[in-house]
Design goal:
Strands 2-1-5-4-3-7 form a six-stranded antiparallel β-sheet, with helices on one face. Strands 10-12-13-15-14 form a five-stranded mixed β-sheet. Strands 6-8 form a two-stranded antiparallel ribbon. The relative contact order is 0.07. Helix content is about 55%, strand content about 15%. Strand 3 and strand 4 form a beta hairpin. It is an alpha+beta fold. The longest helix is centred in the middle third of the chain and has 77 residues. The mean pLDDT is about 85. Among the domains are: about 150 residues, no CATH class; about 150 residues, Heat Shock Protein 90. It catalyses: ATP + protein L-histidine = ADP + protein N-phospho-L-histidine. It comes from Corallococcus exiguus. Its EC number is 2.7.13.3. Keywords: Kinase, Phosphoprotein, Transferase, Two-component regulatory system. InterPro entries: HATPase_C_sf, HATPase_dom, His_kinase_dom, HisK_dim/P_dom, HisK_dim/P_sf, Sensor_HK_Regulatory, Sig_transdc_His_kin-like_C.
Length: about 600
């Protein structure tokens, strides 16, 4: 059944493949339509996001440009606020200020201050301070006089010496602090003395470069002081500033600010970058400027700008999408979100889903039609099988009368054998019955083998015996004289003996039917083939087969047209021979053919021993 349905199945398979290819192509078109529609929405969004990114870059660059003077000023003046500014120069971070006090609990600055205070009273001081203390006493004495010129000269001399002979911070700062405290006179304090607290000495007295006032110098020297020393100097400077009515709020604020703003930059830094959504940094040749930013406010301004230009609806919003800590401003990852775009994408997906469902329904319908076609074809071949079974049954029923005809003919032949005029009739009856019996056996055998119902019964078959059976079969079945010769030696085959007899009988009868010579000459030769079995050559002296017919003669019900009288037959002989050889896993083919006769080559598989 499966073999008969194979052409239908192949046709349906190719049809389904073609339909599947068409449906896949249609689905690809639908997918491309969806991608095009989504690309239109996405392109508008990308354009707006690029516009927003450019606006953000411009806004940040302008902010940096406006704050750059304050940033540079904060680097030079430690009293200026540095919150929100960043400066990295040659690998060192200047802003935000990250100067921590030196580790340890020793207080050298406080000890020096105490020692100098006692030295002013008893006049005993170490060598670095002797000249300083001497000039300090002179300045204090001059301040007690009424001569302004003397006062100014004494103070100026002290300060020039002080500027010309610098000391380490833990020595310089205590002396300067003590000097101001010793020489201050409240509201009447000399301007140069007052300047030592906050403004520092004038440039002509050695100021600016190193002496910028106690408040600035303590902040600059923080990293060289321990925390107790720093706290001691800070407290006394704040108290002194209050006494002299000098501002100290900025100083106190910077004390609290220092050490709280360390930043870590990613490497490498490729152009302007947002850090942690809080800092905007711009790299230059040897330095990096930075500015603290409020991204929420900036994005809100960008949103209002786009709304004002009618580029996004009132419910649209500009926001930062997912990203890392560092966002290069080349691609800041801005997103423009509007509910309208989400609705448009949902509508695109809904249409695509409906089209996909339509394609799937077409595919399911085609599969159902193919299944119905297979069922219909199966039923058709079921009727064909019923017809074949009917033919088989009828052929079986013909065996009984044929056997009776043959028995009666043989009986008549024995009884009338002595009567010359009637002796020929019984022989004719027997031969006709034998021919009919052979035809019925061919039909039955062909039908059983074709439907796979023949159970092969292999046995050891001597080829010489098979040739002898052929000689007996032809003697009873044909009227023309036959000369049968063989050269098979002792070759044996593993085969079904009845099928081998039927195989040779069909070849022999065909040779007699398609022959114009007398006698009919048949030759059987066998050649053992190592590793495969044996090859049997069956030759006759018939009319021959044209080369273009060598394969067609093995087709079912195919009859060869030959010159001369019409040859009767069923067209099953050679077709049955090929099926017999196929059942034995062998082969049969025309080896040669011409006017002198035809030779068939039969190849049998290896004989098992």
């Amino acid at each position: 059944m499966l073999r008969r349905l194979l052409p239908t199945l192949l046709a349906l398979g190719f049809g389904l493949l073609a339909l599947g290819w068409g449906l896949v192509s249609l689905q690809r078109i639908f997918t491309q339509e969806r991608e095009d529609a989504r690309a239109q929405v996405r392109s508008r969004r990308i354009a707006l996001e690029q516009l927003a990114a450019e606006s953000l870059r411009t806004a940040l660059a302008q902010m940096m440009k406006s704050h750059l003077p304050k940033l540079n000023a904060a680097v030079g003046d430690p009293l200026l606020p540095a919150e929100g500014y960043y400066l990295l120069f040659r690998g060192h971070q200047f802003l935000p200020r990250v100067d921590w006090t030196r580790e340890g609990a020793d207080v050298p600055a406080q000890a020096n201050y105490t020692m100098l205070a006692h030295a002013l009273e008893d006049g005993q001081a170490p060598s670095p301070y002797q000249e300083r203390l001497s000039r300090l006493r002179a300045a204090e004495a001059a301040l007690a006089s009424s001569s302004e010129a003397r006062k100014d000269a004494a103070v100026e001399a002290l300060l020039r010496y002080h500027a010309a002979h610098p000391l380490p911070p833990d020595q310089e700062l205590p002396f300067t602090l003590l000097m101001v405290e010793y020489l201050q006179r409240g509201e009447e304090t000399q301007p140069l003395i007052r300047a030592l607290v906050r403004e520092g000495l004038p440039e002509e007295l050695g100021g600016m470069a190193r002496d910028a006032g106690l408040q600035r110098n303590v902040l600059r020297s923080r990293a060289q002081l321990t925390q107790p020393d720093f706290n001691f100097l800070q407290a006394r400077i704040v108290a002194l500033s209050s006494t002299l009515s000098e501002p100290s709020d900025a100083f106190v604020a910077r004390v609290q600010e220092a050490g709280a703003g360390a930043l870590v930059l990613p490497e490498p830094l490729d152009g302007p970058t947002l850090l942690a959504e809080q800092w905007y940094v711009e790299p230059a040749a040897e330095q990096v400027h930075g500015l603290a930013v409020d991204m929420g406010a900036l994005l809100s301004e960008l949103t209002q700008e786009l709304r004002g230009r009618n580029l996004i609806p009132r419910d649209g919003q500009v926001r930062l999408g997912p990203g890392g800590v560092a966002r290069p401003l080349k691609h800041p990852g801005l997103e423009v979100a509007t509910p309208g775009w989400a609705a448009a994408e949902a509508d695109i997906e809904a249409r695509y889903g409906l089209k996909t469902l339509l394609v799937a329904a077409c595919g399911a319908l085609a599969s159902a039609i193919a299944a119905l076609a297979v069922v219909a074809q199966q039923r058709k071949y079921r009727f064909v099988e019923l017809k074949s079974d009917f033919v088989s049954t009828v052929s079986h029923e013909l065996r009984t009368p044929l056997a009776s005809i043959r028995l009666l003919g043989e009986t008549l032949e024995r009884r009338l054998g002595k009567s010359p005029e009637a002796g020929d009739y019984p022989t004719r009856i027997v031969r006709a019955a034998e021919g009919l019996h052979f035809l019925v056996e061919n039909i039955l055998s062909f039908n059983r083998i074709d439907k796979g119902r023949w159970a092969l019964r292999p046995a050891r078959v001597r080829l010489e015996e098979a040739v002898g059976n052929l000689r007996d079969d032809l003697m009873d079945a044909v009227t023309v004289p036959v000369e049968l010769s063989s050269d098979v030696g002792d070759v044996e085959l593993d085969a079904d003996a009845s099928l081998v007899r039927m195989l040779f009988a069909n070849l022999g009868r065909n040779a007699c039917l398609y022959n114009l010579r007398s006698p009919v000459v048949l030759t059987v030769r066998a050649y053992p083939q190592p590793g495969f079995g044996a090859t049997v050559l069956f030759s006759d002296n018939g009319v021959g087969i044209p080369p273009e017919e060598w394969e067609r003669v093995f087709q079912d019900f195919y009859r060869l047209t030959t010159p001369g009288p019409e040859v009767h037959g069923s067209g099953l002989g050679l077709a049955l021979c090929r099926r017999i050889m196929g059942l034995h896993q062998g082969s049969i083919q025309v080896a040669s053919s011409g006017p002198e006769g035809t030779t068939f080559a039969l190849t049998f598989p290896e004989t098992r021993r």
